[in-house]
Structure formats: structure tokens, C-alpha cells
């Protein structure tokens, strides 16, 4: 909660700040960049400022898909700004103010270009208030069919999508490099429940509408923010002093997903024993019954799961799915990529945690998972293209990050030994907690801890075009399993 209080303190400072003094009028104010510089997604995010806190007030009517919103954004200028951009898709902007003064606004594709009445001085906080309305846009791939970003469901709505989703329901600096805290008030018709990230702060009702309040008090990348409106079967309790909120679509039978997501606390405890303390103020799950939701996503403190990924009755693969998304709370959410080319640092680490849980759960051992993937055809999607493109490429979302990513970690473990490997993993989450990192950082840490030169190992497993030698083959006659289909491609 401290970070939220700091944001409100900054807000109070801005409100009381006088007009730009005469001595500052000679400053060279310049526009902030229209993108944060990600090679794969050049226009994602924006330059010139750092967001501290988003306070979102939205009202949503599922019967018409209509959303009214007000976003209060507290930020700090990182350069002398004449204007700045916000990522914002589709919705109509009514007005924008900066430090209480009307600002000029124009659209440039999915960018909102904001020119404040006065230049913004480097190092000082400022507050943007934007009012907007409309029907949020859904991203669709009809031939699959798949839906993501802002999804209109039978009884409400769901927000989930990677690398982008936030900009479909509020103006945002939409890249993992700019993390912020959040407070979210969602008003929906009586009878519906609105879920978001972090700590539940209760609800109030008036004139046929109910407002649900949430607070994410740890820094969060924008694509990890979620909104889930509908009718849910909710289990809310405390575990290790923090709230766990598990919401399952009430149309689903209790035998489908409940048994897996109800292991959230147990699986979290196991992952803590490997990677260190759980990094956030709350935990939980959201399971929605919407056929075009064809992926799970590690939305911070409250992962989203599609009902179609679960089998009726207990199934260890269902538990593996929960372990994967919970592992992302460490790898992807707390420690986030600096650029999307490093996605294997999210998915490879979460997949390896999934293997570790599988072994702990008495299903398949890490060694069996590794060999099952190693024995697949080199020309198939599990091997090619390689999971890491140092240039950034055009599409980091490839199946091989889910296969060669965890295989890379297992090869590292066998090379440096368990003591060094677990030291590397735990230091990684401590050194980059609530921050961003890239592959070169992980290689440097592994070499520093192990005392070994590891460039060749990482090149072979992450970028090589041939199979490296198998460092951990199964003995003759050992069982081999069918390859489960990847279920977590987030678009």
C-alpha cells in the first residue's frame, strides 16, 4: 500500500505546484518518443515519462458493451516534455487535462498525442486525467477462432492479452518497462461481480449499479492488468497473511476446474520453496467459460484460465497449468522482460517450474519432460525457429520458447550443478524484483555464480540451428509420453 500512498502524495504535490516559472520558460521542451524502443513492437510504450500510478474509474454495461471511463495517471517527466503520447485503442476521448489544465489531444493511429498547456519539467511529477467512452475493441483471429484483449462474454467482459491489452480500456504507457501501481473502481449492473488485480477493497451499491474496488500495490506491467466481469463462484480466504481470490464461472460444474485452481495456495508454497517468497500482496485465479478464450495468462496476482483447458475431474496436466501461471508471478510479472525478444525468460522459466511441480506431484519427472521434447523432430515448431532472436525479430511469440526455453534451464542445471543453479534462480528474482531484465543479464549472473564461461551453452540452446548433444538421456526402456499441445500462446 506504501507505493499507492506515494502516488497520491505526488498527486497532492502536482495540484499545489504553481505555473511554470519564468526561469524555466527558456528550457528546451521536446516531444516524448512515440515508442519505448522495443525492436519487435516499435510503437508499444512511449518515451519521456514514467508512470507511478493509474487510478481507473470505469462503468460497463454488458447489455450494450458500452464503457465509460476516467483514468487519472500520475507520472514523472524523464525529460523536458512539450508533448507526450499514450497508447489507446478505439475508444472516444472526451477530454484530457494535465495538471488541471485542458490539454490539446489528437489521434495518431493507436496513439493519443497530448500537448499540455505548459511544458513539463524533467524530474517533476504531473497528473493526466482522461475521460473517454465507447465499445472496447476485441482482437480476433477468425480462422482459429481466438479472441483476446477486451473480450465481450455472455455475462460480462474479460481483459487478457499479451503483449497488449491494457490500451483497449484505458490510456496507458503500454510496455513492461513502465510498471506502476493501480487502483481500480469498476461499476457494473447489480448481480454482476467485477474482478481486477490485487487486494479486494469491497463494494457499494446504488440505483441498480454496484462498484467493486481493487488495489494492486506492487508495480505491475500494463499487459498484466485485468478486468473480469460476470457471475462467478468465488472462494475468498487468506493464506500467509494475504488474500487469495479464486473466481470460477458459475456456469461450470465444480468438477471441472475447481480442483486445480483450489491448489493455488499449495502450488504457491511449493514454488516459494524453490524461488523464494511470493512477490505480491494477493493471489488467486479467474476461470472463464468463453469458447474463443484459447489461452491462459499470468495476469498479476490473479491468473486467467479458459474453461476449455481443464478436464472434468482431477488431471495432473490441469495442475501443471496452474503451476505454470503461478510461476510467472516470479518470472514475467515481478521480473519482466526489458524487450519482448527475451520472452523465453518468462515462458521458459514458467515451463521449467511446471516440470518441477509435475515431478513433485508424482506425474512426470523433469528428466522425462526434457527427453520427451528433445526427441521431437528438429524441423518441428518445438525446435525451430530458435526461441531467442538477439535482434528482436518481428514475432517473439513462438512455440519454441515453451520447449527449448525450459530445456535451456535444464542444460544449465546439469552443467553448473544444483547448488549453483538454485543460487542463480533465487538471485535472479531478488536482483530484478519488480524490474526488467534481458538474456545478457541472466547469462552474466549464471557465469558470475558458477565461475564458468557459458556463452557456448546458451548459444547452442537458445539460438543454435542444430540439436546440442543430450546432456540427460533416459536409460533404455524408460517410458516416453505423448507431447501435450502448448496451451499458453498469448495474443
Automatic annotation (TrEMBL):
Q: Check the record and name the SUPFAM superfamilies matching this protein.
A: Leukotriene A4 hydrolase N-terminal domain, Metalloproteases ('zincins'), catalytic domain
Name the coenzymes or cofactors required.
Zn(2+)
Under CDD domains, the record lists: M1_APN_like
Which segments constitute the Peptidase M1 membrane alanine aminopeptidase domain? 320-461
Stored InterPro entries: Aminopeptidase_N-like_N, Aminopeptidase_N-like_N_sf, Peptidase_M1, Peptidase_M1_aminopeptidases, Peptidase_M1_dom, Peptidase_M4/M1_CTD_sf
The chemistry this enzyme catalyses reads: Release of an N-terminal amino acid, Xaa-|-Yaa- from a peptide, amide or arylamide. Xaa is preferably Ala, but may be most amino acids including Pro (slow action). When a terminal hydrophobic residue is followed by a prolyl residue, the two may be released as an intact Xaa-Pro dipeptide
Q: Supply the EC number(s).
A: 3.4.11.2
* Gene Ontology MF annotations: alanyl aminopeptidase activity; metallopeptidase activity; zinc ion binding
Q: According to the UniProt entry, where is the signal peptide?
A: 1-24
- Domain Aminopeptidase N-like N-terminal stretches: 161-224
Instruction: Please indicate which superkingdom the organism of origin belongs to.
Output: Bacteria
EC category: hydrolase
Cite the entry's keywords alphabetically: Hydrolase, Metal-binding, Metalloprotease, Protease, Signal, Zinc
Q: Where is this region: Disordered?
A: 468-491
Give a GO biological-process term: proteolysis
Homology family: Belongs to the peptidase M1 family.
Protein name, UniProt field? Aminopeptidase N
Species for this entry: Dactylosporangium sucinum
Amino acid at each position: 500500500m506504501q507505493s499507492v500512498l506515494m502516488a497520491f502524495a505526488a498527486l497532492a504535490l502536482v495540484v499545489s505546484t504553481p505555473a511554470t516559472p519564468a526561469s524555466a520558460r527558456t528550457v528546451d521542451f521536446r516531444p516524448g518518443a512515440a515508442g519505448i524502443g522495443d525492436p519487435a513492437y516499435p510503437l508499444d510504450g512511449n518515451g519521456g515519462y514514467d508512470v507511478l500510478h493509474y487510478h481507473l474509474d470505469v462503468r460497463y454495461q454488458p447489455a450494450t458493451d458500452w464503457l465509460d471511463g476516467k483514468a487519472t495517471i500520475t507520472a514523472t517527466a524523464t525529460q523536458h516534455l512539450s508533448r507526450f503520447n499514450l497508447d489507446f485503442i478505439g475508444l472516444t476521448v472526451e477530454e484530457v487535462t494535465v495538471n488541471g489544465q485542458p490539454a490539446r489531444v489528437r489521434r495518431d493511429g493507436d496513439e493519443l498525442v497530448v500537448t499540455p498547456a505548459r511544458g513539463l519539467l524533467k524530474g517533476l511529477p504531473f497528473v493526466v486525467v482522461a475521460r473517454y467512452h465507447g465499445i472496447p475493441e476485441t482482437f480476433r483471429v477468425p480462422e482459429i477462432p481466438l479472441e483476446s484483449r477486451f473480450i465481450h462474454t455472455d455475462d460480462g467482459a474479460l481483459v487478457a492479452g499479451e503483449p497488449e491489452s491494457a490500451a483497449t480500456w484505458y490510456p496507458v504507457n503500454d510496455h513492461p518497462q513502465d510498471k506502476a501501481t493501480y487502483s481500480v473502481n469498476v461499476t457494473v449492473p447489480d448481480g454482476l461481480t467485477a474482478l481486477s488485480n490485487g487486494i479486494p477493497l469491497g463494494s457499494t451499491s446504488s440505483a441498480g449499479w454496484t462498484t467493486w474496488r481493487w488495489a494492486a500495490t506492487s508495480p505491475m506491467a500494463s499487459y498484466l492488468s485485468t478486468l473480469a466481469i460476470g457471475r462467478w463462484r468465488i472462494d475468498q480466504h487468506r493464506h500467509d497473511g494475504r488474500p487469495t481470490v479464486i473466481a470460477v464461472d458459475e456456469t461450470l460444474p465444480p468438477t471441472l476446474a475447481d480442483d486445480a485452481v483450489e491448489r493455488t495456495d499449495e502450488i504457491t508454497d511449493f514454488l516459494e520453496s524453490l524461488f523464494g517468497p511470493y512477490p505480491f500482496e494477493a493471489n488467486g485465479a479467474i476461470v472463464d467459460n468463453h469458447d474463443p478464450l484459447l489461452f491462459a495468462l499470468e495476469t498479476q496476482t490473479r491468473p486467467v484460465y479458459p474453461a476449455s483447458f481443464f478436464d472434468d475431474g482431477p488431471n495432473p496436466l490441469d495442475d501443471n497449468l496452474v503451476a505454470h501461471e503461478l510461476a510467472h508471478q516470479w518470472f514475467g510479472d515481478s521480473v519482466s522482460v526489458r524487450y519482448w525478444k527475451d520472452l523465453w525468460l518468462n515462458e521458459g522459466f514458467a515451463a521449467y517450474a511446471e516440470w518441477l511441480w509435475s515431478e513433485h506431484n508424482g506425474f512426470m519427472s523433469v528428466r522425462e519432460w526434457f527427453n520427451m521434447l528433445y526427441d521431437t523432430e528438429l524441423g518441428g515448431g518445438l525446435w525451430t525457429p530458435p526461441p531467442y532472436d538477439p535482434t528482436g525479430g518481428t514475432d517473439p511469440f513462438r512455440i519454441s520458447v515453451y520447449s527449448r526455453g525450459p530445456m535451456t534451464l535444464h542444460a544449465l542445471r546439469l552443467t553448473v550443478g544444483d547448488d549453483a543453479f538454485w543460487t542463480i534462480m533465487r538471485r535472479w528474482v531478488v536482483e530484478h524484483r519488480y524490474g526488467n531484465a534481458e538474456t545478457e543479464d541472466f547469462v552474466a549472473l549464471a557465469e558470475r555464480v558458477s565461475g564458468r564461461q557459458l556463452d557456448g551453452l546458451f548459444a547452442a540452446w537458445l539460438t543454435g540451428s542444430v540439436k546440442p548433444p543430450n546432456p540427460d538421456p533416459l536409460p533404455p526402456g524408460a517410458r516416453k509420453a505423448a507431447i501435450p499441445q502448448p496451451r499458453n500462446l498469448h495474443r
